[in-house]
Amino acid sequence: MQLKPFLLDAWLDQYEHDIEFNLAASTGPTWTVNDILALADDETRHRFLNHNLVYGRPAGADSLRKAIAEMQSVPVESVQIVTGASEALVALMWLAAEPGANVIIPLPGFTTFSALPESLGLETRFYRVRRENGFRIDPDEIKRLVDSKTKLILVNSPHNPTGATIGDAEMEALHDFTAKRGIQLVSDEVYHPIYHGKQTKSAARLPHATVIADLSKAFSIAGVRTGWMIEHDAKRRQQYWTARAYFSVCNTTTGEILSEIAIRKRDAVLAKTQEAASRNLKLLERFMADHRDVLGWIPPQGGMTAFPWLVSGESDRRFCQAATEHGVLLAPGDCFDVPSHFRLGFAAAGDNFSKALDRFGAFVKSWSAKMVTA
Q1: In angstroms, rounded to a whole number, what is the distance separating the alpha carbons of residues 39 and 60?
Q2: How distant is the alpha carbon of residue 271 from its chain centre?
Q3: SS3 for the chain, per residue?
Q4: CA distances to 37, 88, 228, 236 from 68, in Å
Q5: Rounded distance, CA 245 to CA 94, Å?
Q6: Per residue of the chain (374 residues), what is the pLDDT tens digit?
Q7: Using CA atoms, how far apart are residues 72 and 94, in angstroms rounded to an integer?
Q8: CA 118 to CA 96: how far, in whole Å?
Q9: Closest of 88, 86, 89, 67 to residue 76, by C-alpha
Q10: Cβ(346)–Cβ(353) under 8 Å?
């Protein structure tokens, strides 16, 4: 088994700890432990400060699972806690890895989507999220890739890095299509429910869909490393329980309590992300209009990232590298197997986003002038 280099994390780890303006981040405004505890009642704060640092349960703490079940409107037994959505992906791809099997995933997409199945010997088939059709997730293209060996189809909505979404009716049709063929439909919803246009529902409502989500993106408390899977099939739930018992045993008890607070106070937590994302997206729209001679883009329908490109058509890594020298961090498109684009996060900077755009704009003008004289 060989895992391909994780270009995105290598790039971020190289620069994000010291950069002045991080526009590569895909999260929202940050929270401190005190911020989260301030949302809780006295009893919960006391429980947090005085709980025993012991092993948790492989399925997750009962109270945390109940909070997630209430949020997702599903029975509590359908909830499996995992260490971020990343562990959910490991379990899903591990269980799909049968000889001759294939999985269908988006391109561009989060590196883990492809790296895991490829390392396990699964045939990996890609449906394209193209700028030529407005970054639309096309269910018909997905269906054309299916054959008798297809084990799993993954849909990420809102999509990282483009911000594309799939409509409720299209998701329901895809669900019916996969259910009839015994194919597992996985809906990655780490950016749900952050939208900038039409809201869409969680696929947790669909009886044959598997939902994976976590608190890293929409909730923007990545440090707790809490994710979950919503699974209505009892046999699959037992497989997930066994897999995570081997992989990570359980989550941290501290993280589970903080996670439960955030989920029970989700109106306040998600509002902070949505407010920052909506406000900053308006600033980004004006910025992109001002620089349309150099940059192209399609406004995201959800999430906190956009996927612009250089209208010159050149690879964006050199552009992103030069931006770091001006104190601005972007994520090169080759980290998502699309080297002509770059990812730009617009929520993590919070109130500093306007200043970040000023700096980025000065860099874009200098880059444009350099290209003219080159």
Answers
A1: 22
A2: 18
A3: CCCCCCHHHHHHHHHCCCCCEECCCCCCCCCCHHHHHCCCCHHHHHHHHHCCCCCCCCCCCHHHHHHHHHHHCCCHHHEEEECHHHHHHHHHHHHHCCCCCEEEEEECCCHHHHHHHHHCCCEEEEEECCHHHCCCCCHHHHHHCCCCCEEEEEEECCCCCCCCCCCHHHHHHHHHHHHHHCCEEEEECCCCCCECCCCCCCHHHCCCEEEEEECCCCCCCHHHCCEEEECCCHHHHHHHHHHHHHHCCCCCHHHHHHHHHHHHCHHHHHHHHHHHHHHHHHHHHHHHHHCCCCEECCCCCECCEECCEECCCCCCHHHHHHHHCCCEECEEHHHHCCCCEEEEECCCCHHHHHHHHHHHHHHHHHHHHHHHHC
A4: 18, 16, 8, 19
A5: 14
A6: 789 999 999 999 999 999 999 999 999 999 999 999 999 999 999 999 999 999 999 999 999 999 999 999 999 999 999 999 999 999 999 999 999 999 999 999 999 999 999 999 999 999 999 999 999 999 999 999 999 999 999 999 999 999 999 999 999 999 999 999 999 999 999 999 999 989 999 999 999 999 999 999 999 999 999 999 999 999 999 999 999 999 999 999 999 999 999 999 999 999 999 999 999 999 999 999 999 999 999 999 999 999 999 999 888 999 999 999 999 999 999 999 999 999 999 999 999 999 999 999 999 999 876 664 54
A7: 26
A8: 12
A9: 67
A10: yes
